Amino acid sequence: MVVSENTLKWAMRFYPPLLFQRIWVQKVEPGYTGVTVVVHNSIFNRNYNRSIFGGTLFAAADPFYPVLLHQLFSHKGYNVIAWLKSSAIQYLKPARTKLRFGITFSDNDINAIEHSLSHTGKHVAHYPVEMYDEAGELCVTISNEVYLRNLDFVLQKEATK
């Protein structure tokens, strides 16, 4: 489904797996080139040590790369599917305050992805997520492997046979 940046922001804010974990989308950048997210420490996502539960942090990083890439390239006219293929997380420090992270795609990133979609029909890459506490200290690093497929490329390839 293709939506506006504002609709995406509000849909993600009230998406139950994010809402109930206190994961809040602050902003979706114009053209789906980025997002800013805050993970609040609350009774709903606090572990025994009063820090944010690791599953909440993993859930916070899970949807944004695939969703942004899907929206970005759907708006460019591509018929794509996107999903998170794998992920690895490192907890560096207990998250006792709210955490922030941002995701940004540069023009070079977008051009490289578009080249892959046009020439091979798919794009697979690892993207980082770094979550910082209110003091600006790095608490969590995550590496997300994202898979993006140009569905029309497969159809074009079969049509030329």
Number of helices: 6
Order of helix and strand elements from N to C terminus: HHEEHHEEHEEH
Computed structural class = alpha+beta
Largest sheet: 3 strands, antiparallel
CATH class: Alpha Beta
The global form is elongated
The overall number of domains is 1
Low-confidence stretches: none
Q: Which homologous superfamily in CATH is the superfamily?
A: Hotdog Thioesterase
CATH topology: Thiol Ester Dehydrase, Chain A
Helix content: 25-40%
Instruction: Report the count of strand segments.
Output: 6
Mean pLDDT: 94
Task: Identify the strand order in the major beta sheet.
Answer: 1-2-4
The CATH architecture is Roll
Rg from alpha-carbon coordinates:
17 Å
Distance between the termini: 31 Å
β-strand percent reads: 25-35%
Structure description:
With 161 residues, the protein is α+β, with helices and mostly antiparallel strands. It has one domain (5-159): Hotdog Thioesterase (Thiol Ester Dehydrase, Chain A), CATH 3.10.129.10. It has 6 helices and 6 strands; from the N terminus they run ααββααββαββα. It has helices at 5-13, 16-19, 54-61, 64-75, 107-119, 151-159, and strands at 23-28, 34-39, 80-91, 99-104, 122-132, 138-150. Strand 1 (23-28) and strand 2 form a beta hairpin. The longest helix has 13 residues, at 107-119. It starts with a helix and ends with a helix. The model has no long low-confidence stretch (mean pLDDT 94).
Question: How would the blueprint of this fold be written?
Answer:
Elements: H1 5-13, H2 16-19, E1 23-28, E2 34-39, H3 54-61, H4 64-75, E3 80-91, E4 99-104, H5 107-119, E5 122-132, E6 138-150, H6 151-159
